[in-house]
Structures are given as structure tokens and as C-alpha cells.
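In keeping with the milestone schedule agreed at the kick-off meeting, the structural modelling team has produced records for the first pair of proteins. Each record is given below as a sequence line and a C-alpha cell line. The laboratory manager (R.T.) confirmed that both were archived under the project's standard naming scheme.
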Amino acid sequence: MATFASRKIASEPPLMLILRQLPCVLMFLYIGRIVFFAISSGSIDWTKVEEDCRKAVQLDNNSVKGHYMLGLALLQRQEYAEGVKELEKALDLGRGADPKGYMVEEIWQELARAKYMEWEHESTKRTWELQTLKEACETALEEKYILEVSQLEGFLDEVSTKHMEQLESLARVFKIAAEADTPTEVPDYLCCKITLDVFRDPVITPSGVTYERSVILNHFKEVGNFDPVTREPLEESQLVPNLAIKEAVQAFLHEHGWAYKMD
């Protein structure tokens, strides 16, 4: 039996149906042009990609591919902040539409690469600024030392000792300042027990073990429905997002962008 909605659609003039579907048609047209540029020329015209993706997301702001490709285009122009923003939008939309889809993993890989590139760019800038400042401070201390030596001839040992202590204190201060940009090890509690990679979308089991969502779901599919650590029976419905760990990971990555580097 036809519903009211189906009778309404059937009764609409063909022109109205075309106009209703036009935004979706145009969005796919813009996204399709991106693929055409890549295939026909053997390379991607990122300027055209950015232009078409902006039009696509204007027509459908929930377009995963639109935000994804726009993010990649912005990264090509080294617009790291805006590129990351678009990739994060695409990742959120992708997880909402199909958490197990290949696009989610692909977007995360590009987002991690973008975050690392952003950190590397800013880290290089900070390192240069710190080194320049350190050299200026050392020069100022040296000038002060020479002046004090000339004015306090009978206290050379005391002046020299004080000068060395000041240089050591200066070195400690700048060493601490550079620690945030020095790669070390990611804490174990922020890493999946199966892959040992930093968490992206952590979920916790009833036994209290936390896994990366895509990894434990793949374990269910390839191995079986049980906890890899405790070996207890486990179903997908029992997995709960571990928001505390997710927030801890985000805080850590915000302070240590080097951890985004993918092996």
C-alpha cells in the first residue's frame, strides 16, 4: 500500500524531482571531477580539488569525501591548521556513518601524518627560536663576565665560578624548554595492548581491558568472540568507549605532536 509520502513524491512534477535531487547530483559531480583530474593527467591538480571540494561541502556539509579531499588539498599548500580541521571533520563524519569502513582508517592515517607535519613545522621553528635566544643569553653573560673581570681584579676566582654557574643554569633552562619537542616513548596505558600503537578510538571491556575499537572488532572477525588478554567470552555489544583514556591520549598528543608519527 502506497504511503502518503510515496503518493506525494509520485504526484510531484518531474522538474520538482530534479530540483530536489540537484544538490546531491552537483556534489557527486564535483567529487567526480577530482577523480577525473587525477586519472586524466596522471597527477592531481590540488587547486581544482580545493575549489571543487569547497563547492561540494557547501552543498552537503556532511560529505565525508568532500571534507577529506579538501583537507588533503589544504595540506598541499602547507595550510596545516585548516587541513587538520577538515580531516578531523571527515573523521568524525566517517565514524558516525560507518565506523568499520576503510575510509575511517584512511582518514586517520592522513590526519596523523598531517598532525605530525604540523608539529614538525612548528618544532623546527621553536628549535630555531630557542637556539637564537640561548646564544643571545650566552653572549650577554660573556659580556657581563668580561666587564666584571676588568672591574674586580682581586676576585677573579669568585667571578669565574659565578659565571660558570650561570652558564650551567642557562643550559638547564633551555634543556627543559626543549623537552616537549624531544621524542621519547608513549606511555603504555595510552597504547593498544594488541598493536602497541597509540589509541585512536579506545573501548573498554567488562574485564577492564582497553583496546583500539577497529583492532578488537577485527579480532572478533578473524579469531573469535573472546577477550585476547583474559580469554573470556566477549561480544561487540559489551564494548564501551573509554572516554577517560581518549581524553588522556588527546592531551598527550596535543603536547607531544611527535607521537603522531606512523611507522
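The second protein of the pair:
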Amino acid sequence: MEQKHGYAAAFKAVFRYTIPVLAGYVFLGITYGILMRTSGYPAWLPVVTALIIYTGSMEFLLVGILASAFNPAAAFATAIMVGARHLFYGISLLGTYRDMGPKKFYLIYTTSDETFSIVYTTPIPDGIDKDKAYLAISFLDQMYWVAGALIGTLFGGLITFDTTGLDFVMTAMFVVILLSQWVEDGTALKTMLKDHISELVGIFGSLLCLIVFGPDHFIIPAMIVIFVALTLLRPVLDPEFQQNQHKQKTPQVKEDNA
């Protein structure tokens, strides 16, 4: 099949996968822009922070951090705690982003929760350059967030309806991604456990940590539990990995031609 190397082909191929992010990021970005403007910050600040920081939850916390007493150590610690989950995203994408050259740095920088979900679960269509496709996904998602912040900054004062609950858009988007992956892996009841090990590990691991650590502190422990469980279950989830391990353990018999 002919390989389509252009960025235009990559953007066209992956755009439909980013539509849920478009819906969520624009609404949340608008909310962020409105919040910054109504808190008395200049119009340029929401857009610049959306472009440079590009961490939605941290940006919402930034509103209060900027208004409080100067404490860089506390701000740094908060940023580390909020963004610690990205460590697991990076580990999961080591193979995906390998050998991408300078593009890798931008891809790492723009790996948000939603971008990770799309990159990790979306099959790149045949004939599309994967490097350009991943770059297109990351760029589109970032621009959605920046555009939302810009709209909120410019037109926030004109919005009169109650925006309570708009942040639930992101939760709904993750549910849709989970259901899509579930259907793709199979819907037969007889093979549910076999087909959905990774999803079930994520669901029950998160519920367990939610019960043990509470709603304010369960995310990082849940990530650790899921990471350890999936690592232990890798031979079951990835048959090729098990075969490679078996080959490494099997002694090689060298022919003696002497």
C-alpha cells in the first residue's frame, strides 16, 4: 500500500479520533479563561499559560496559587503531585515514541491524559506515517485547549448561563474511550475475563485505592497498583513477550563446522 507521508494526510486521518477531546478541551478551556478573567488577571495570561503549562488541572490550581502568598516550594510540590501520573504515561509510551528524533520532545511535552488515551488506543490507518500521526494528535489536542482558553478570555463576559458541571465533559470522554476499547476487545460473556483483563485491572484497582485512600489521594496509588498488576500479567496480555522470554531461556545450539 502506498505510504502517505504528508502531514495533511496524517491530520485528516486522526482528526476524527480527537473530536471527543475537542468537545472537552474547548468547554474546559472556556471555563478556565472565564475563571482567570473574573479573578482579575490580564487577558493574555490564560492563553500563555494554556500554551506553556498545558496541564489543565494545574492551570485551574494556578488561579489560587497566583492569588496566594509567594511560596515557590509549595507551588513546585503541588505541580509534582498533580503531574506525577504522567510518569506512568511515559513508561507506557517508551516503545511508541522510540526513534522519533527531535519530535519526541514535543510529543512528551504534550502528553496529556486525553492525548495519552488516544495515542495508546487508536490504531493508525494503513498508509499513514505513524510519527506524523502522533504529532498531529498531540498538536490538535493542545490547540483545542489553547483555543478554548482564548474564547473564554475574549467572550467570557458575554456568557450568562450557568456553567456548573462542564468539567464533567472530561469524565464522560474517558467513559466513551473505555467503552470503545471494551467493544473493540470483544463483547462475548464467556470470554469476558480473558478479553478484558487490562480494563478490569484498571477498574477494580482504582476502586480498591478509592476505598483505601479516599477520593483526594487515590490516583497515584491506583496508577502504581495498575502498573504492577499489568506488569505481572504481561505474559498473559502479550503472547509475543512470553515467546521471546522462552526463546531467551532456550540454549542456542551452535553447529561445529570444524
